[in-house]
Amino acid sequence: MATPGFPPHTLDASGAPVWISGLAGDDPNHTVHVVRGLAPAAALEILGARPETFRECALPQDKPDRWMSLPAAALGLEPEDGCLLAGSIADWTFVYDDLACTSHDDTPPLSAAGRTAATSMFSVNADASLTYAVDGEPLAWISADDLDLAADLPALPAELRAAFEAAGTVAHDYLPEGAVDYDICMRAVCALAGLRCTLEDLRGMPLVLAPFA
Predict the structure, then answer these.
(1) Cα–Cα distance between 103 and 121 in angstroms, integer?
(2) Residues 6+ apart with CB under 8 A from 153
(3) Which contacts (CB < 8 Å, 24+ apart) does range 178-182 have?
(4) What is residue 3's predicted lDDT score, i.e. its pLDDT?
(5) Alpha carbon of 78 to those of 44, 67, 106, 110, 212: distances in Å?
């Protein structure tokens, strides 16, 4: 695998999509969902957010402290209070969950009624994984710890395989050459949904925000 197929300035120094690391607080424990053919508000409802709490969101320029996410800062929440931020690019909707209150269990419901959905999770312990589902059925679950690109990619559904090919690998001093890094699942979910963007790109989109307990 080669350098990730992302434009300049869309990945941070560690190889994470810069819009995700820009939203997150330090030492993130977070989730990103993507779903094709579903509006942002509808995706938030499926994930369990209450419609009466939805609000349009303008992201602040800065976080009040290093532990708080930008979406939480926009709502005036405490760092321990979770929230969901949703928007869309072309046919895909994304939902950023700043405290991983949602999980891979939500991927099949998001993909119901013939839709395609994927979820990438990254924990504070650097556990990284991705789930892919179509029409309510999970078709793949991938852990970065166990991923063997040469052996595992050929068996993946075609569009997910293409997403991991675009994600590529990022070299780190602590990894053997060509080894899978911990941000590969976040890059793959972004490549799948065409989320090769910056935080400033995100600021130009209509965004919906909801607190999540």
Answers:
(1) 7
(2) 161, 164, 165
(3) 178/1, 178/149, 180/144, 180/147, 180/149, 181/14, 181/15, 181/144, 182/122, 182/126, 182/128, 182/144
(4) 62
(5) 21, 10, 25, 28, 12
Cα separations in angstroms, 57 against 74, 76, 137, 178 = 7, 12, 32, 39
How many other CB atoms are found less than 10 A from the CB of residue 154? 8
pLDDT for residue 11: 95
d(CA 104, CA 100): 10
Q: Both tokens of residue 13?
A: 């120094």
Token duo for residue 108? 């099949």
- Widest Cα–Cα separation across the chain: 50
* Band (97; pLDDT cuts 50, 70, 90): very high
pLDDT at 64: 84
Torsions phi, psi for 2 (to 5 deg): -110, -170
Helices H, strands E: what count in the chain? Answer: 8, 8
The secondary structure of residue 4, as a DSSP letter, is -
- Any idea which residue has 């996410």 for tokens? 69
CA neighbours within 13 Å on the CB side: how many for 174? 3
**pTM beyond 0.85, yes or no:** yes
Angle at 36 between CA 32 and CA 40, to 5 degrees: 65
